Amino acid sequence: MEIWINPACSKCRSAIGLLDDAGAEYTVRRYLEDVPSEDEIRDVLGRLGLEPWDITRTQEAAAKDLGVREWPRDDSARERWIAALAAHPKLIQRPIITADDGTAVVGRTDEAVRDALSR
């Protein structure tokens, strides 16, 4: 299990606490420092069953500067979204937990973290 975190994020700290309380074995990835490649983002999206616009933090300054809210949300723009996430990792929703069964969840709630633990 791996968890992508920003240590300054309260949701990330909460998720780590739940993982620790459950005695889970996991690896921490500080994704703002160890930026995921476009291929890694594609892989996580597949594991999440989501599209890049589903995990984009559209309120971030970089998102506003890029104008992502105006971008199409379809296959024609998918690679553009993925490139933006790789170039501006702060736009990636957090925390993302990759479960041992090959799936992943966005662990913003206690229920989502527990779901990852049960997989």
TrEMBL record:
Q: Which CDD domains match?
A: ArsC_ArsC
Annotated GO molecular function terms are:
arsenate reductase (glutaredoxin) activity
Which UniProt keywords are present, listed alphabetically?
Oxidoreductase
State the Gene3D superfamilies in the record: Glutaredoxin
Q: Does the keyword Oxidoreductase apply?
A: yes
Q: Organism's domain of life?
A: Bacteria
Question: Which protein family is named in the record?
Answer: Belongs to the ArsC family.
Name of the protein described by the UniProt record: Arsenate reductase family protein
What is the native source organism of this protein? Streptomyces tagetis
